[in-house]
From TrEMBL:
Molecular-function GO term, any one: serine-type endopeptidase activity
PROSITE patterns according to UniProt: TRYPSIN_DOM, TRYPSIN_HIS, TRYPSIN_SER
Residue stretches spanning the membrane: 267-291
Signal peptide, first to last residue: 1-24
Official protein name in the record: Peptidase S1 domain-containing protein
Ranges where the Peptidase S1 domain occurs: 31-273
Amino acid sequence: MNLYRERSLIIFIIIVFCGTLISAQNLTPKIIGGFNVSTIDDFKHQVSLRDASHESSTFGSGHICGGSLINYDTVLTAAHCVHDGDRYLSPAYYMAVMGNLDLFVRDSNTVVRRVIKVIGHRKYDPDSFINDIALLKLNAPVPKDHPTAQPIRLSKTEARPGINCQSSGWGSIQYEENARAVRGLMAVNITINSKYDCNRRESHAGSVIRGQFCAGPFSGGKDTCQGDSGGPFACNGVLVGITSHGYECGLPNYPGIYMDVGYYRDWIAAANSAISSLSNLIVLIAILLILSIF
Ligand SMILES: *[C@@H]1O[C@H](CO)[C@@H](O)[C@H](O)[C@H]1NC(C)=O
Ligand SMILES: *[C@@H]1O[C@H](CO)[C@@H](O)[C@H](O)[C@H]1NC(C)=O
């Protein structure tokens, strides 16, 4: 099944329907028109979000989405990566992997974490991709002095047209039985377009709403694609977007659509504090339990 070649206006995002596997045969890089990232320096925030049950066979084979490390124990991704179209899935499904350019390598730099909490936007709509944003809490923080995995700063302002940015990812769902190919991180340099241009009739025709932007040339050829979803869209070392969806990939007139991190900064802050108050509560309960024993 080659989803990218379907001519219908099927949105390319990958949804994990309760662990139902969508298999992609195609291992070619799915960042369209991009380049192989040669050093991790600018991509230490890049996360590979994986289906934990699929990781047992081959390390890297469970890759489903990208993500960005935004705190030592928090990953920002797209809601559709952790939602089955009906509800958010259990955190137990997911694993977050960081620290390496190669999806399949596990070495001393590789950070592997379980996801212990999924906080997805309550008003995420799978049909329109409105509010396609989610926060994941990891079971343990990444060490602060880790050489190749570090959080990225969030944009405080909404995305502005004309800025040059980079979108990155491994860009394929790695559900193949024998997915052992070397898979290096890819990135593409693209520019944020004005909402007016995104929403022209011959382009996205009004479907790029508040909280979203489109980026990439209208001539096509440079884009994110399947499996890049949830991943970072960074401009000068600041996270400005989350890869969300599009019509196929790299098609003329259809630049990819991203969630605007600056627009969602209050939601992100609230979700963040919900996560930390949760862990504070757990600590408090633990302390009370210990005190009651003595
Ligand atoms: C990226 O690297 C792979 C494997 O080394 C190579 O096959 C591919 O042509 C490279 N792609 C680009 C765009 O440089
Ligand atoms: C992409 O942008 C980065 C940062 O501006 C620059 O260093 C790099 O040379 C660009 N790469 C390509 C292939 O355009």
